[in-house]
Structures are given as C-alpha cells and as structure tokens.
C-alpha cells in the first residue's frame, strides 16, 4: 500500500513514462485516451475507452459522488472543471469504473450519475462547492 508522500517524490529515472492529456496508450487490444482530471490530486487521470464507452475514473468520480479534496494538492476548482468540463461531456451511456466501490453498485453510467446525484447537477462552481461542503459536514 502506498501513502501519499510516496507520490509527491519523483520516481527514479528510467521508471517513469509521462503521459499527456489527449494522448493514447495501448493495453492489449484496447486503446485508452488519457484525460488529465486534477482536483482530487494534481496528477489524477482518467482513462477513456471510446469504442467500448467505458471510463476508468480512479478517485475522480465514483458511483454517486466525486472524489474528495482533503489532501495536500487537492483543489476544488480543478475538480469541478475536471468533472464538468471533461467527464460529464462524455456520452451519457458511458460506463464509469471508479477506483473504489462506495455506491450501491460497482459501476454506473454518466447519465445515471447525473440523474441520481447532486454532485453532478450543479449549475456552477458555487453550487458544487456547497454540495462538497455539505457532504464533508455530514459524513
């Protein structure tokens, strides 16, 4: 298990290959598009498999909510833009595979998350901030 401090230190040379937003990686026969989605952590990414309509969201988006912004380097404004300007612009029938199972189901779709969760129905950053603060206060 890795702690946060292990991620803020550079990896030894030769053990790291960087990726950029919009670039693609191939895993087996799958081609996944890199989506830089900072907020939960500055280096958060999601992986989108466009033909399969699947997105692997890590800790950026879960079933029913987003990741939290409680760690050093977390940023609520960045998370808002990552969710609303990147992830929610994917097709509504895209299946979300989150990094953890915190919901009633292991997966959901973008459309179902929008239909069922206030985290994905905010008109602006102020509303998103309210939803996030309310969540933290009532955990």
Task: Provide the fold topology.
Elements lengths: L4 H4 L15 E4 L2 E7 L8 E5 L4 E5 L17 H10 L9 E4 L9 E2 H7 L8 H13 L2
Parallel strand pairs: 4-5
Antiparallel strand pairs: 1-2, 2-3, 3-4, 5-6
Any overview of this molecule?
By secondary structure, the protein is α+β, with helices and mostly antiparallel strands. It has a single domain (20-137), classed as Metallo-beta-lactamase, Chain A, CATH 3.60.15. Helix content is 24%, strand content 19%. The protein contains four helices and six strands. It has helices at residues 5-8, 76-85, 110-116, 125-137, and strands at 24-27, 30-36, 45-49, 54-58, 95-98, 108-109. Strands 1-2-3-4-5-6 form a six-stranded mixed sheet. Strand 3 and strand 4 (54-58) form a beta hairpin. The two termini are 25 Å apart. Mean pLDDT is 90; it is low at 1-8.
Provide the CATH architecture. Answer: 4-Layer Sandwich
Cα end-to-end separation = 25 Å
The CATH superfamily is known as Ribonuclease Z/Hydroxyacylglutathione hydrolase-like
Beta-strand level of the residues, as a percent range?
Answer: 15-25%
- Name the structural class: alpha+beta
What do the pLDDT scores average to?
Answer: 90
Question: Can you give the helix content as a percent range?
Answer: 10-25%
Q: Describe the biggest sheet? A: 6 strands, mixed
Number of E-state strands: 6
The CATH topology turns out to be: Metallo-beta-lactamase, Chain A
Order of H and E elements: HEEEEHEEHH
Low-confidence stretches: 1-8
Rg for CA atoms: 15 Å
What general outline do the C-alpha atoms trace? globular
Query: What CATH first level would be assigned?
Result: Alpha Beta
**Number of distinct helices:** 4
Strand adjacency order, main sheet: 1-2-3-4-5-6
Number of domains: 1
